[in-house]
Amino acid sequence: MTALPDAIENRALQGVLALSWADGSSASWTHAALRAACPCAECRARRRAGLAVEADDGVRIAAIEPVGAYALNLGFTDGHRRGIFPFEMLGEAGREMLHADAAWSRT
Ligand SMILES: [Zn+2]
Question: For the residues 19-43, what does the mean pLDDT come to?
Fold first, then answer.
């Protein structure tokens, strides 16, 4: 299980959320990629039904709330704020998804 990150940096201008851990690992997500990967029950149900989870490139994180020591609750500018994003997902699944995400650019 991935521990609490050392640092969580929201680069609002670029629309990127960057996380880093004490062991030197790190992960970066575009806000749009996070919105598309939202793990809430509603978005999971949409994916199971074969429907896309809409994520406009312009969507941004509007609120970041820690959930205990294991996750972040992210609210987005499209009004969706149900997603509880475990650090494990942000740190491990995140890296794989970013490589597949053409919208991602290294900064
Ligand atoms: Zn969702």
Answer: 93
The answer to whether position 106 is within a domain reads no
Expressed as residue numbers, the domain containing 81 is 7-100
Which residues make Cβ contacts (< 8 Å) with residue 16, sequence separation at least 6? Answer: 10, 28, 29, 30, 31, 107
CA of 13 to the centre of ligand 1 (A): 23
Predicted model pTM: 0.82
How close is the Cα of 25 to the center of ligand 1, in Å?
Answer: 26
Distance 77 CA to ligand 1 centre (A): 13
Which residues have beta carbons under 5 A from ligand 1 (an ion)? 38, 40, 43, 83
Which tens digit of pLDDT belongs to each residue from 39-75?
999 999 999 999 999 899 999 999 999 999 999 999 9
**The total number of structural domains that make up the chain:** 1
**Is the residue at 91 inside a domain?**
yes
What three-state secondary structure class fits 18?
Answer: strand
